[in-house]
Amino acid sequence: DLFHPTLRIDQTSIMATAFSCAASKASESFIANLATAGVENCPVAWTVGADAAEMVGRDSYFQGTTPLDTWVGYLVVIGFGALFSVFTTIVVYLDKTFAGNASMTSEHFNTAGRMVKTGLTASVIVSQWTWAATLLQSSNVAWQYGVSGPFWYASGATIQVLLFGVLAISLKDIAPSAHTMCEIVRARWGKSAHLTFLFFAFCANIIVTSMLLLGGAATVEALTGMKYELASFLIPWGVILYTSTGGLKATFMASYLHTMIIFAVLITMITLVYIKVYSSDQIYSFLDNTVSYSPEQCMAIYSTEGTVETTFFYSGDKEVLGVTEGTAQYACGPVAGNAQGSYLTMLSADGLMFGIINIVGNFGTVFVDQSYWQSAIAARPASAAKGYLLGGICWFAIPFSLATSLGLASTALMLPITRGEAGSGLVPPAVADNLLGDAGAVLVLIMLFMAIVSTGSAESIAVSSLVAYDIYREYINPEATGKQILWVSRVVIVAFGIFMGLFSIALNAMGLNLGWVYLFMGIVIGSAVIPLWNMMTWSKASGKGAIIAAWGGFVLALVAWFVGAAVESGSVSVSTLGSNPVMLSGNLVAILSSGLIHYVYSKFIDPQEYDFATLDANIHLVEQDTAGLTEDVINKDDIRRSKRWIIRRGYLLTFVLIIVWPILSIPAQVFTESYFSFWVLVSIAWGFGAAIVISFLPLFESQDEIGNVCSGIMNYVMCKKVEAEEYAEEEPAKEVDEPEKEAEVAAEEDAA
User: Fold this and answer.
1) In Å, how far from its chain's centre is CA 70?
2) Which one of 51, 637, 648, 735 has the fewest CB atoms closer than 10 angstroms to its CB?
3) Which 8-state DSSP code applies to residue 471?
4) Going by C-beta distance under 8 Å and a sequence separation of 6 or more, which residues neighbour residue 550?
5) Is 147 in a helix, a strand, or coil?
6) Which residue from 308, 283, 281, 296 is spatially nearest to 333, judged by alpha carbons?
7) For residue 24, what are the CA distances in angstroms to 19, 70, 87, 277, 285?
């Protein structure tokens, strides 16, 4: 009964009157006009809910009004940012002061001491991979394609994390001293390749951060009325403050808390849709009703007076196209490309097409994104592979469970969510607002802000590492000291946050929304994926071939993208370039052409016989901070066993998620009521299971450190002096790192 006071649905009469137009809140004249058009069953949203009367004749859900006051937006964006900055700074201070963990060297700032355990690694992966798009776009594809949308979003973006576990453990084997992926490129393939993949790495960071701010600012504006431009500019400051203070360790600690809050809201929404308010059987019946309408009936439903003549169901110029032409703007009627036009089927042509785009595009945003390499660098060797596998499995629940509840509920209830609102990621806040009113809108807003700041902090520290190590240290100041690297890292975090706030404003002004950028990302960075994989796993991989493959695949993808738009629509515009078939062609060409080019060049033109044992010798630490690099930690036999472990399980789970599961769902065709109930049960169980694991495993693994901090605080309060190093797990970093200071010490020793 926790949510009973705020529930806005009368549960006792849902099924009895759900489809009855007579029981709806529509006027008598509206109902009479619908009857003339042959509409016998009305949308559920017209019958149940506190806002049922307002749903009739409404041309969009939010209609330019907001469920929350503007001050709520400022409170969340500024208040939560300040709260997490203070909280994270205190935690980092306590960890350093009372647990004796490493001091803030540049190495520790950018690698977190290379000693992060499995649970926290998994939690960080979930946090980093939970974008605004994860929460918003996943429900959009459920709104568009039905049950196949959440599945393809989740599976199509989980396998990359599972497979990246192979690279994570390979990194611990051949380049444990690395700070960035581009450092590894430089050490193996030289300067030209280094500059090439530095370009693609920055593209990945900019695209991911753009999606965070595009989706986040649009939702903040829709829910609170806070100006889009102001939200875009202020959101990054919540990230800048604590990331620039505590570095990667602070990011990891904050990410754990963000992940817990995201899962708390997730299980709340699942519980509301399928347990507290509705049931799977009711949602099943509602979805059947949604696809039962003809185009003419849909036009009558989405109109100002209940007639075809007053419809706003289609977009476009009514004087030119007529009222029955254009693009349908609402979820009503059979779904084109789905078996029997149903939302309740995996046999969806557009859903499958989205799945392929999702798979290809997300390989780029994992394999080319420095933040994932940074998490692998920070993890203990024994935790790297397991952390990524566990993180991928737990992350699957977020888009799958959330979109299976909120996304399907939006179409089942037939809320007046327009195609534009869905594309901007407003499906979850609309459903939450319908279920819980202001409380639902606040929960989604908080959940979204957690996703933005968690991923945003990871992207910020990733960009700062690339600039500090791959530009400043490599090309500007090769003799940079640790303090200089630390200063550059902090300056870049601030500069990147400001730049991305302004850049997202520019993207919005160009008419690009979250969905468009999400489909576009693979075209830009997909061509770098296979060369990077080959760099870590194939001794014959050619550096020249990698450069040609990356740039060649990029150019070919752009050509295929523009040509596809021209062929399909006869013109090239933001709209025509954003269609699924056109985006699919560009994404596939990017990753496949680069892979083919690199293989052919490395195999037949410039084959190499690279000795991976020499790679780490070409990567140098700035300071002699060897935490996580000692022989007792880097055990080659353990690493080889971990590599075999992740290869077997990563490949198996990938095969299950993108091949076995979809094939097993084909015989069902359109789901029966019992089959859909089982599908929902899986999503609920996965959501609750992931929430439990990701919340408690990091605490269980860190119980000694937590105990050390608590003991240290107690000793401090009781004025008992205990050396912090007594509690420390990490080897304290050497503070003498500047060449000048080393020289002074040596001179003093000689004089003595």
Assistant:
1) 26
2) 637
3) I
4) 196, 197, 200, 527, 528, 531, 594
5) coil
6) 296
7) 8, 32, 49, 18, 17
* Contact (Cβ atoms closer than 8 angstroms) between residue 128 and residue 630: no
How far separated are the first and last CA of the chain, in Å rounded?
A: 77
Angle between helices 438-465 and 228-271 (to 10 degrees): 120
Helix axis angle, 370-378 relative to 381-402, nearest 10°?
Answer: 130
Asked if residues 408 and 185 have their Cβ atoms less than 8 Å apart, the reply is no
Tokens of 156: 């199509």
Q: Return all residues near 387 (Cβ < 8 A) that are at least 6 apart.
A: 116, 117, 118, 119, 120, 121, 122, 124, 125, 165, 168, 375, 379
3-state secondary structure 327-391: CECCCCCCCCCEHHHCCCECCEHHHHHHHHHHHHHHHHHHHCCHHHHHHHHHECHHHHHHHHHHH
Strand partners, 328: 314
Between the alpha carbon of residue 385 and those of residues 66, 173, 245, 640, the distances in Å are: 45, 12, 29, 11
The rounded distance, in Å, linking the Cα atoms of 410 and 427 is 7
Mean pLDDT of the chain: 83
Q: Which residues contact 93 (CB under 8 A, 6 or more apart)?
A: none
What pTM was estimated for this model as a whole?
A: 0.84
Residue identified by tokens 């075209």 is 523
Is the confidence at residue 169, as pLDDT, over 70?
Answer: yes
454-470 confidence digits (pLDDT tens): 788 888 888 998 999 89
Q: How many CB atoms lie within 10 A of CB 462?
A: 30
Q: At residue 186, does pLDDT exceed 90?
A: yes
Query: φ, ψ for residue 670 (rounded to 5)?
Result: -85, 130
Q: Which residue has the higher pLDDT, 545 or 740?
A: 545
In this prediction, residue 2 carries a pLDDT of 39
Instruction: Return the structure tokens found at 238.
Output: 């919540």
pLDDT at 720 over 90: no
DSSP class per residue in 442-469: HHHHHHHHHHHHHHHHHHHHHHHHIIII
Q: Check: CB of residue 424 under 8 Å from CB of residue 215.
A: yes
CA 201 to chain CA mean position, Å: 17
CA distances from 333 to 117, 329, 330, 417 (A): 50, 11, 9, 14
Regarding predicted confidence, which is higher, 130 or 81? 130
pLDDT for res 630: 59
Asked if residue 318 has pLDDT above 50, the reply is no
Angle, helix 132-145 to helix 381-402, in steps of 10 degrees = 40
In tens, the pLDDT along 644-681 reads 888 999 999 999 999 999 999 989 899 999 999 999 99
In the chain, the amino acid numbered 39 is V
DSSP 8-state class, residue 103 = P
Query: What does each C-alpha distance from 149 to 139, 347, 358, 538, 660 come to in angstroms?
Result: 8, 11, 11, 35, 17
Please, which pLDDT band fits residue 230 given cuts at 50, 70 and 90?
confident
Give which of 437, 91, 475, 434 is closest to 253, Cα–Cα.
91
Any idea of the CA torsion for 529, 533, 539, 544, to the nearest 10 degrees?
A: 20
Dihedral sign (CA 296, 299, 305, 310): negative
Tell me the C-alpha distance between 638 and 384, whole Å.
Answer: 12
**Cα–Cα distances in Å, from 723 out to 100, 693, 703, 727?**
8, 34, 20, 8
> Of 288, 283, 311, 291, which Cα lies nearest the Cα of 34?
311
The C-alpha atoms of residue 725 and residue 728 are separated, in whole angstroms, by: 5
